[in-house]
Amino acid sequence: MNIHTKNPIRITAAVALFAALTAGAHATEVPQVHVKYGDLNLATADGATVLYQRIRGAADLVCGVADARELGRVAQAKACAVHTVAEAVAAADAPALTAVYAAKMGVTPATRLATIG
């Protein structure tokens, strides 16, 4: 089974949205990245691993990297990335990707759903 799509996953930083709104910025300024995966076979571990890496990179972009001296911002960026990756994995709805995510995060697929909420 070769899963292809022309619709990329949209990665939007939920925590970044909250920060932007509380700072008085417009919601249109919230960073977004579209992760394309039509070139990958999501039924394989290799394809799912590549997509997971793309999602992680996109989450890092939209969530930003905080100055390590600002512990509160570092924690916020990390929480944003964790939540954003969980949402993107759920949106892709690909069992192999869910398995890669669960292995990387050290969770079961059922626990993954709890991290999204």
Structure in words:
The protein has 117 residues and is mainly alpha-helical. The protein has five helices and two strands. The protein has a two-stranded antiparallel ribbon with strand order 1-2. Helix 2 runs antiparallel to helix 3 and helix 3 packs across helix 5.
What class would the helix/strand composition place it in?
mainly alpha
Distance between the termini: 30 Å
Mean pLDDT: 76
Poorly predicted residue ranges: 1-5, 15-27
Taking the sheet with the most strands, its summary is: 2 strands, antiparallel
The SSE string, one letter per element, is: EHEHHHH
Strand line-up of the largest beta sheet: 1-2
Helix content: 55-70%
What keywords describe this structure?
single chain; 117 residues; mainly alpha; globular
SSE layout:
Blueprint: E1 9-12, H1 14-22, E2 32-35, H2 45-63, H3 71-92, H4 95-105, H5 109-116
Antiparallel strand pairs: 1-2
Helix pairs in contact: 2-3, 2-4, 3-5
Short recap of the structure:
The protein has 117 residues and is mainly α.
